[in-house]
Amino acid sequence: MKAAPQAQQRLLDLAKLDSVLDRLAHRRRTLPELAQIEELSARLARASTQVIAAETEVSDLGREQAKAESDVEAVRARADRDQKRLDSGQVSSPKDLANLQSEIASLKRRQADLEEVVLEIMERREAADARVTRLIAERDEVAAARAAAEDRRDAAFAEIDKEQAEVSGGRAAITADIPADLLSLYEKLRGQYGVGAAMLYGGRCQGCKVSLSIADLNAIRAAAPDEVLRCEECRRILVRTPESGL
Where in this chain does the entry annotate a coiled-coil region (predicted)? Predict the structure, then answer.
């Protein structure tokens, strides 16, 4: 392949900008905020699950309390009816009176037992309500931390995107100065090796940092200025400059 020396040297300018773009892309992929957001998202999911479980427990206890209170009311109503019968004097048989008094006493004991159950459920529900309040506060704290991390990520992305746009604009201006076939080769090598072109500096390829042999340097000296050379070690385009040591 042939290309004017000036066009070949423009590859070095292009490689510098591509190196900047690579660093920006790496920075975008490895922002600390990305790992923070992932970790906080996992914590938020766990916290949300805990809140749902705690709220479900409160709801279950609410139904349990309502049933226990209904049972208390049913027993109290029955005891009140029996007590009114007893007080009304409608029951005259000693046996029936004894049975009615026994039933009233039994209902009072049953009512007391059920009221103890209601109190126990209320205490459990109060503790569950407090747990829901605490878990919601913890969940909201994690959500706020994630939102702050997302804001920092977005600010960093905006800064990176701005710099990428500026560098890409400069890159477009450089590629306009490079012949299509040379640019195509450069892009192919860049895809394979990360860097498509390297300067020959002081007899050493700056791509692989290998010093060229005397034979290789003599071959380069003998090559026409417009011949596109490749490093024998890393296969990148080898660009000659006044600092090449030739």
Answer: 97-166
Residue 110 near residue 73 (C-beta atoms within 8 A): no
The per-residue pLDDT for 246 is 77
| Per-residue pLDDT reduced to its tens digit, 30-70 | 999 999 999 999 999 999 999 999 999 999 999 999 999 99
Q: Are residues 59 and 155 in the same domain?
A: yes
Distance between CA 10 and CA 160 in Å, rounded? 25
- The total of structural domains in the chain comes to 2
Cβ atoms of residues 236 and 193 within 8 Å: yes
Range of the domain at 149: 31-164
Residue 55: name the closest of 128, 118, 120 by CA: 128
- Contact assessment for residue 219 and residue 246, using Cβ atoms and an 8 Å cutoff: no
Write the pLDDT tens digit of every residue in 198-217: 999 999 999 999 999 999 99
